[in-house]
Design a protein that fits this description.
globular, five-stranded antiparallel β-sheet, four-stranded antiparallel β-sheet, mainly beta, 373 residues
Length: 373
C-alpha cells in the first residue's frame, strides 16, 4: 500500500456521508542526472516529462520509466542564441521557450524548429512559470506580455493601473491580426484603484471554459472560452484558512509595495489541473510577520529550509462546479510543489534536492493518486 500524504473530510450536504480525500504515493522513478532539476511540464501525446534547472538553460526529457529521452542545453551563441529564458514548456510536442525579446522559440531534440513571434517589443519583466501556449479556436492563445510601449512614460499611476484593466490574453491565427482577449471582472478587488503587485497568470483550458489563477489572490476566475472570445463568468474564493495576504498600496505609492515582503511572505496560488472529475489547485499559504521574523539568519536572509517547513506546497480539491471539497492536502516531503497530471491520471511531482535530508543519486519523481473513501 502506498503512503498516504494528506486526508481531509467534508460533507457537501447534511444527507451525504463524509468523503475522505487523500494523495497516495503509488510509485516513484529516478532520473539518472547529477545536479538539481525541477519538473516543469508533461507531454501527454508522447508521454514524457520535461525537467530543467532554475535558469531553464539545462534541461532533460524523460519517459515514464525515468529514462532520459534527451538531455540538452539552450543555445547561448549563434543564430538561435537565447539571451534570457522567461519560461519553458511543451507545445505541439516541441519544447517552447519564452525568450526576453524573440517571442517563443521551439526546439525538438535541441534543434530549432520554428518560433512564435510577438508583433511588438516587450519587457523581460514577464514571468511565465507555465509556458501558457495553447491551441484554441484554430490558433494560439497565450498570456499577454508586457509591452515596452506601456513603459514609455515610466512607472506612472496609469502604468500600474493598466496591469488590472488591460486584456489578459493574446490570440494569434494565421492570416489574422493578433487579438487581445479577456479582462478581469469589473467587480474584481484587483480593480479597486490600488496596487496589488504584478499578476502572474496560470490557466487551465477545458472544454468551453478557461480557469484562471492570478497568483496573488486565493481564487479561481472562470471564463467562457467560446465563439472566439473569452468572457468572465464567475470568481470562486478558495476560502483558505491562515492565508497571508499582501498589503495593497495606493497607485501613487506602488513603488513601495514590495517593502511588505521584508516583513512577511504573502500566499500564492500557483497551479490548476484537471484530474478525472476534479480540479486540483496548488498553493502556499505564506508566512505571517510574527513567524517571518524568526526564520531570518544573522544577515537578515531567509533560511530556505525553514521556509520549506513553514510554507509547504498544499493542494485543494474541487469538483467541476468549483466547489471546494478538500484543502491543505500535503505533497511528499521535500517536493518542489509544481505538479503535472499524466494521461493515466497520476499526479507527478519532483523532489527538490536542496530540501532533501538525504543525497539522492538522481532526480526523483513521485507518482501520486487522488484517493476517495
Amino acid at each position: 500500500m502506498g503512503a498516504v500524504l494528506g486526508i481531509f473530510s467534508c460533507s457537501p450536504t447534511i444527507d451525504q456521508t463524509a468523503v475522505n480525500y487523500s494523495l497516495e504515493i503509488e510509485d516513484s522513478v529516478m532520473i539518472n542526472h547529477l545536479g538539481s532539476l525541477y519538473l516543469i511540464d508533461y507531454d501527454s501525446k508522447n508521454d514524457k516529462f520535461l525537467l530543467s534547472d532554475e535558469s531553464f538553460y539545462n534541461y532533460v526529457e524523460a519517459n515514464k520509466e525515468g529514462e532520459k529521452v534527451f538531455e540538452g542545453r539552450l543555445p547561448v551563441d549563434g543564430p538561435d542564441a537565447i539571451d534570457m529564458a522567461l519560461g519553458m514548456g511543451y507545445f505541439r510536442g516541441n519544447i517552447a521557450v519564452a525568450t526576453a525579446n524573440q517571442g517563443f522559440k521551439l526546439f525538438d531534440q535541441g534543434v530549432s524548429v520554428g518560433a512564435i513571434k510577438i508583433p511588438y517589443a516587450y519587457n523581460s519583466f514577464n514571468f511565465l512559470p507555465k509556458i501558457g501556449l495553447t491551441e484554441w479556436n484554430g490558433g494560439i492563445l497565450y498570456p499577454r506580455l508586457l509591452a515596452d510601449s506601456l513603459m514609455a512614460a515610466g512607472f506612472t499611476e496609469e502604468f500600474y493601473a493598466r496591469g488590472y484593466t488591460d486584456p489578459l490574453f493574446e490570440f494569434q491565427k494565421e492570416g489574422q491580426e493578433v487579438k487581445n482577449l479577456g479582462f478581469l471582472p469589473e467587480t474584481s478587488p484587483l480593480r479597486n484603484g490600488n496596487f496589488h503587485g504584478s499578476l502572474v497568470l496560470v490557466y487551465h483550458l477545458q472544454g468551453p471554459n478557461l480557469y484562471l489563477l492570478n497568483w496573488v489572490r486565493p481564487e479561481i476566475l472562470k471564463y467562457s472560452a467560446e465563439i472566439g472570445d473569452i468572457t468572465a463568468v464567475e470568481t470562486v474564493n478558495l476560502g483558505l484558512e491562515n492565508w497571508v495576504s499582501y498589503d495593497e498600496t495606493p497607485l501613487n505609492n506602488a513603488q513601495n509595495f514590495y517593502e511588505t515582503y521584508r516583513k512577511k511572505m504573502p500566499g500564492t496560488v500557483r497551479n490548476i489541473q484537471s484530474v478525472g472529475d476534479y480540479f486540483l489547485v496548488q498553493y502556499q499559504l505564506g508566512i505571517p510577520e510574527e513567524v517571518f521574523a524568526t526564520i531570518l539568519d544573522g544577515e537578515g536572509r531567509l533560511k530556505s529550509e525553514e521556509v520549506a517547513k513553514i510554507n509547504p506546497p498544499l493542494i485543494a480539491v474541487l469538483d467541476k462546479n468549483l466547489k471546494v471539497l478538500a484543502k491543505d492536502l500535503r505533497l511528499p516531503p521535500a517536493s518542489n510543489g509544481d505538479f503535472v497530471v499524466t494521461k493515466e491520471g497520476h499526479i507527478v511531482v519532483s523532489k527538490n534536492p536542496n530540501l532533501s535530508e538525504t543525497e539522492d543519486p538522481g532526480t526523483i519523481l513521485y507518482k501520486l493518486k487522488l484517493k476517495t473513501d
